[in-house]
Amino acid sequence: MNPRNLLTVIAAVGALGGLVACSTSGDTSETASAASASSEVSQTGSTRPTLTESRLQPPPLENEYTTQGRPEVVFDPCTWISDEAVSEAGLDPATRRRGQDVVAEYTFLTCDFDGELRDLSVESGNVAWEEDLQRYSGSSEPLTVNGREALLVQDPEQPGVCGIHVRTKAGFVMFSASRTFEGAEAGLQRCDGVLEIVTALEPEIGTEN
Q: What are residue 119's DSSP bridge partners?
């Protein structure tokens, strides 16, 4: 190689190394702070923050029993619903826990919350909205929640539960509320206050779902 060309290459490599060094250096305290934050909240593909605590994570969405052809369930209530929304709904964020997830011929991702007057189970599934309407045709009435198509369900087989199902692109999210002992003592009727709970939590599903 011509000596002049060799010197040009060496100079270019040196400049590149300095550039890389500048880009990786910086305030280590800021780096540590960012790493700490990522252990609690991560970003989904839609840049939406989700909880990352291991006990809250959903199961794999495919297994030997999974039925092909149903939409993938995107909204996971245990990792998508914020503590602020849970508190606004009158529930205790510290009680957040995974319920009985189902991943088979259909999928339901479940999260449970407790409150002083009501406990709540939230199930996000890929059963078609039309199937849900048919199943509860004799024990439901239509309504809307924040402009989203919904269904108020009072299943005679679950007399202590008031359900509100809201339609999603994958299927629907089922909010099932039951009175606590304190709620019953306070005179709450079956569906008192349930619409307000769901109204506070529905925005967490996201308009894209």
A: 178
